[in-house]
Amino acid sequence: MGAVGNHKTLKDIKIFSKKLAELNGLNKSTQEFKMTTKRINIMLLSIILILSGQLQAQTCNSSTTLVSPDSRFTTNSNGTATDNQTGLMWMSCSLGQNWDSASSTCTETAITYNWKEALDAAESTSFARNSDWRLPNVRELTSITEIACHSPAINESIFPTTASSYYWSSSPYIELSSDAWIVSFSFGFANIAFKYDNYQVRLVRAGY
């Protein structure tokens, strides 16, 4: 594992330690305890997989039918892709990255945001001659996951250089005002996180 992988693992361990400290201060009969335990279990799984080297390259199951094949999308020359199934237009790159039209890929490193910062960043973003970009809700964000693949669980032809990481949705978690929904693009599942956590962002807009 290279220096980047080691740095990411250390970062995940630091986050896990922080969550564990928070957990120790909670009443074990509360809903917060249950939710924090769930977060920690998922974080532990991610750390174990990183340490074992399973998150270094995308792996797809050839026996599973793709739910987001290339034919589902119309790729535009401006760094966006339209989902012909939902009518939504997505940014091909995560926020913080740049679209390289010559090579049809994303360059630079994606920026991480807490939930409020993610909402604010979406509101202030103008890209591809559109200024109505927004943070997708959890159902929309989950819709572009690819169940046949993991690490990342997404169509890399349409969304190149997507990190095997969590991405924010705009959906708050109703039972706890401190939380909001995130989607893992390591394995394509939705989970909840504290709103002050820092995760990556992909923006969407109405395409039709």
Structure commentary:
The chain starts with a helix and ends with a strand. β9 and β10 form a beta hairpin. α1 (3-24) runs antiparallel to α2. The strands form four sheets. The protein has a four-stranded antiparallel beta sheet with strand order 2-3-4-11, with no helix packed on it. The chain has four helices and eleven strands, in the order ααββββββααβββββ. The protein has 208 residues and is an alpha+beta fold. It has two domains: 1-56; 58-206, Roll (Mannose-Binding Protein A, Chain A).
Features:
four-stranded antiparallel beta sheet; 4 helices; Mannose-Binding Protein A, Chain A; alpha+beta
- Tally of structural domains: 2
The H/E string reads HHEEEEEEHHEEEEE
Gross geometry: globular
Can you identify the CATH class of the largest domain?
Alpha Beta
Helix content: 25-40%
Largest sheet: 4 strands, antiparallel
* SS-based class: alpha+beta
Could you tell me the radius of gyration in angstroms?
A: 17 Å
Average pLDDT: 84
Describe what is shown at a glance:
This protein has helices at 3-24, 31-51, 115-123, 138-143, and strands spanning 59-60, 73-75, 80-83, 88-91, 98-100, 105-107, 149-150, 166-172, 179-184, 190-194, 204-206.
Topology (SSEs and partners):
Elements lengths: L2 H22 L6 H21 L7 E2 L12 E3 L4 E4 L4 E4 L6 E3 L4 E3 L7 H9 L14 H6 L5 E2 L15 E7 L6 E6 L5 E5 L9 E3 L2
Antiparallel strand pairs: 1-7, 2-3, 3-4, 4-11, 5-6, 8-9, 9-10
